[in-house]
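INTERNAL AUDIT FORM
Audit reference: QA-55
Scope: verify that the stored structure record matches its stored sequence.
Auditor: D.O.
Record contents follow.
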Amino acid sequence: MILTTAAQMKELDRRTIEELGIPGLVLMENAARLAVQVIAHHYPRMHSPAVFCGKGNNGGDGLAMARYFHQQGLDVRVYLAGSRKTLKGDAAHQFRLVEKSGVPFIEMDEKVNRSFLKLEVSRSDLLVDALLGTGLEKEVQGLFKELIALMNDLPIPKVAVDLPSGLSSDTGQSLGICLQADLTVTFGLPKVGQVLFPGCRWLGRLFVADIGLSPLFFPAPENRVELLEASQLASCLPQRDPGGHKSSYGHVLILAGSTGKTGAAALACLGALRAGAGLVTLGIPESLNAIMEVKLTEAMTEPLPEGTRGTLGSKALGRIMALLQGKKALAIGPGLSTAPQTKRLVQTLIKETSLPLVIDADGLNALSEAPKILKHLAGRAILTPHPGEMSRLSGKPVAEIQADRIKAAREFAQRHQLILVLKGAGTVIADPEGPVYLNPVAHSVLATGGTGDVLTGVILGLLSQGLPLKEAACLGVYLHGRAGVLLAAKRGAQGLLASELSEEIPGLLSHKDLWTPLQKEAIPLIREVALG
């Protein structure tokens, strides 16, 4: 599903109105009618809704909704933030219709009696927030801030129109204050900030209403952000031939592990095997080989020459190049160490091999010290940094990266022509040739040591079975997040181990219901978006 920024949504509206010829009032009426249908479906006993309206198009949507509520015989009241004289365009037209229809309304300004207003509103059984729309850029102040705080304080169900007031539609950040909605009805397409953290926490359930915006004007792929969804990823699932054998599903090599960090190597191997790789070989410093032969049962180990004890040395290069013969892909980094010889080995190996690569952890740290090597990765690598590693790779502060994760990932991927997986709550996958993908599936169970190593292995295991880079990254990230949610549902959210995460992968890959396209929605032209 395509996600939009505020600017893209504004352009989509404009072109639908001006080039396709659908009047803005028609779009507004469609939005109001569908939002009322969603509310009626989920709150069938509602009798006295209170509709809070701003002066822009978001307020116009709310005013039209109030008119529909009134036509249904509900005891609706409009609370207008400001004077009717400040309304313009379609919002002003909607207010005139509200007034002619006899819908009760109250105009509010900074001098409104707060105690009286709270008493009035508390008699309602549903609050509709149509105060501020997608164009909000500055921190909420004054009357709007007080009205949002009032709604948040009242123990009454709250429905946000398009998005909760105070939420940035682009970044998902609260601009000073934000309405905590129980349900949000957004129009046309979901907004990026509704999927990013912490924005998704303010929405409640999210529904998208098809109000008639033309797909002809949707953002171009290179400027697009898309939501990862199981039904769309179904086509990426590796196919298993009943007559296949272990070599049918690829042999991969993992270079990982050092003294004190053998667990990272084991977890990456488990991830690759659980994702379906036919054969996995782990290249490990020779002094650690005996440990890994005990730790791993299904993966093979290959002792390699060391530099300092317990770390790979430069002399391992020749043996590694021989091992790469016949392999489908290579993963570098989990627990590998930042010993000087190990870093030089990684930097040389990247230039010498032409295999598809998954680079994580200490592999990324080696790259960050030799950024010119990035040019050798064009078209054949997936990098999986967390924000700290991304900072070292890009030279940008973590705060700047986190402030706009999509921009940071897209720019890096396009500059270096590789797939960039920026990990975190709402993992971002950037494709240099197309969209940026957001994973809506996240859980705090993933916030424990080793889960990133499992992800590296899962992506590698999918590459082993012939998936292209982008598809392996997207499916791997989605499976990883979904495994966390499933594991937490079974066993709780605390104290879970990364090794347990990998155990959920095979069941998810064969879970037919998960990958089946969504059933027909209960309300025509309305679709619920699953977040988490």
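Auditor finding: record pair retrieved intact. Residues 469-491 form the longest helix (23 residues).
Action required: none
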